[in-house]
Amino acid sequence: MLPLREKPLPNFYPVILAGGRGTRFWPRSRTSMAKQVLALDGKETMIQQTVDRLRPLAAAQRFWVITNEHLRRTIAEQLDGVPQRQIIAEPAARNTAPAIGLAAFILLRDNPDAVIGMFPADHVIKDEKRFRKTVARAVELASMDENIVVMGFKPTRPETGYGYIELGAKLVKDVLFVRRFTEKPNAERAGYFVAAGNYFWNSGMFVWSARTLANALREHLSETAPFLEEIAKAYGTRSFHKTFEKLYPLCENISIDYAVLEPRSTKGEHSSHLYCIPAEFGWNDLGSWAALYEHRAAKSKENGAGTNVIEAKGKLSMDADGNYIYAPDKFVAAVGVNDVVVVETDDALLVTTREKSQDVGKLVKQLEELKKKKLL
What we know:
By secondary structure, the protein is of the alpha/beta class. The protein has two domains: 12-285, Spore Coat Polysaccharide Biosynthesis Protein SpsA, Chain A (Alpha-Beta Complex); 291-375, no CATH class. The protein has helices at 46-54, 69-78, 96-110, 128-142, 187-196, 210-220, 225-234, 240-247, 256-265, 289-299, 360-369; strands at 12-17, 64-68, 87-90, 115-120, 123-125, 148-153, 164-172, 175-182, 199-209, 274-278, 283-285, 309-318, 324-335, 340-344, 349-353. The strands form three sheets. The chain has a five-stranded mixed beta barrel with strand order 6-9-7-8-10, surrounded by four helices. Helix 1 links the parallel strand 1 (12-17) and strand 2 (64-68). The longest helix has 15 residues, at 96-110. It starts with 11 loop residues before the first strand and ends in a 7-residue tail after the last helix.
């Protein structure tokens, strides 16, 4: 555990996954300016906030970022101190298993005792000190044996957009065995999970040693692991980019949950070395305009269910509740409307409802089919 004064953790390497497009945050989130490099919650961008909250636990030189070529330069400009050679752009999108796996094989080569924390670039955390205390506990546990540690959150509603963790017995007071992982269930099953009481939301934040993860990939993703190992061997040499571009697209396109965690959980809760730390630091996975509205409304001084969140030069509302409106260069007047989302950019205007905001990603797919490249 960390002492009262936070200090860097030995052998700890945060790996930030920042390769997504954030299509549900269109029209602000675009291919070359995705949500992780936008300031959606304050003055700092999402990836800057992610790095800053972890900085007390690791020097900037120990951070790694896995992203794509469209975002690499912007991320490098936003992250002072993180070595540019450790901001790696995938030549093809291959989901979280190859991304975090590549980092594991690279770090294992340089430090056999490396412990990796996997963190998405688009989360918001309320209590950052408690967050770091939880991470430190996870690092302590992951550095022992072949342990894989996930941070889980007690569900507050039957959410179908999150994966779930079925928890077993307690290992110790603050750590539980994991029985199984279940990816995004339908509404009926999600309701059952919430009622059961021993299912937590999967935050997507994992901690494991580089050796543990590398071995898990060799076992559960046996065709992809050799490609990642060969790419890692070339890292730091002149042949790296050529090897990366040749072999990475051959890797299976699969999440770490499906690739490792679900098959590992079939070994049984006392044999899988999967553990969950129930996290109580306030967490939000900003996956849609509705999620951003809920987060911002909760922080608002008005602090009520009927709060409007309006980002504009000036604003006035009359008989209007539950709206999210983004028009930073205009005066906004909201009259007689409820639960709408309006987002304005230089070249586009989104009008939807909070209930339907998850469907914005489907809209982006239609824009792709129509070849509206300027809007992507």
